Amino acid sequence: MHTPSLLDIVTQILSHVPLYVWGILAFLLVMGRKQSRTNVMTRKRLLVLPLVWVVFGAWGVQQGFGQTGTANAAMVAWGLGLAASVGVMLVSGWPGRARYQPATGDFLVPGSWLPLAMMLSIFVAKFAVGMTLGIQPALSHSLVFAIGASLSFGLFSGFFLGRSINILRRGLASASTAAVAA
Question: Which residues touch 89 (CB under 8 Å, ≥6 apart)?
Answer without folding.
Answer: 158, 159, 161, 162, 163, 165, 166
